[in-house]
Amino acid sequence: MEYNKFIDHTLLKPEAKIEQIKTLCEEAKEHDFMSVCVNPFFVPVARKLLEGSSVKVCTVIGFPLGANTPSVKVYEAKKAVEDGADEVDMVQNISMAKEHDYEFIENEIRQIKEAVGPDIVLKVILETCLLSDDEIRECSIAAKKAGADFVKTSTGFSKGGATVNAVKIMRAAVGDEMGVKASGGIHTKEEMVALIEAGASRIGASCGVALVSK
Fold it and tell me: Is beta strand 7-11 parallel, antiparallel or unpaired with respect to 202-205?
């Protein structure tokens, strides 16, 4: 099985340099990955570097804490799309998830989806390492109700990353109508395959080349 189109080839480190973004994009084109995932500042750079290729530009919103107000996230998402992003990975408000205010979660996601429009893929980062199984399930349902296209496990900047258990819960909650993205701490092909078998339809990783190498 070919795994290249599962991969969002990712570089979100705060110290990332333009030369590293160039390398990321070249690798993504060489291996025909689904996207590169970069911080909003680098969206115009990635857009230009990937011109003429099938590789999409993905960025992150409200990253990595999810604690910005909804209006700030909406503005950030709209600006990212104007700058050339094809896909937007937003961090949900984790505090409100812990409060079990799923109406807030749903409303915030809906605002961002309406702001970016139907042609932009919206993924909702739950940060599953901070949530109980029930919270993962309820947040996934809220994201589905709000019209998101994917739910995503992790930022990669908290205390844990993707797990098979979390992916299974998310897939069961959203069914086949949505994507599930596993990200954070995926370093081997074996880990990637286990997550895909659990229900992941996209993989976010900084070591994408290693994951698809023979």
Answer: parallel
Distance CA 36, CA 190 (A): 22
Residue 82: is it exposed, middle or buried by C-beta count within 10 angstroms (0-12/13-18/19+)? Answer: exposed
What average pLDDT does range 164-178 have in this prediction?
98
Asked whether 159 and 184 are in contact (CB, 8 A), the reply is no
Catalytic residue at 181? Answer: yes
Q: Is residue 203 within 8 Å of 186, Cβ to Cβ?
A: yes
Residue 145 annotated as catalytic = no
Q: For residue 157, give the nearest of 133, 178, 181, 127 by alpha carbon.
A: 127
Cut 0.85: pTM above it? yes
What fold, for 4-212? TIM Barrel (3.20.20)
Of the listed 56, 144, 152, 168, which one is catalytic? 152
Peptide bond into 64 cis (omega under 30): yes
Dmax of the chain from CA atoms? 45
Q: What is the mean pLDDT of the chain?
A: 98
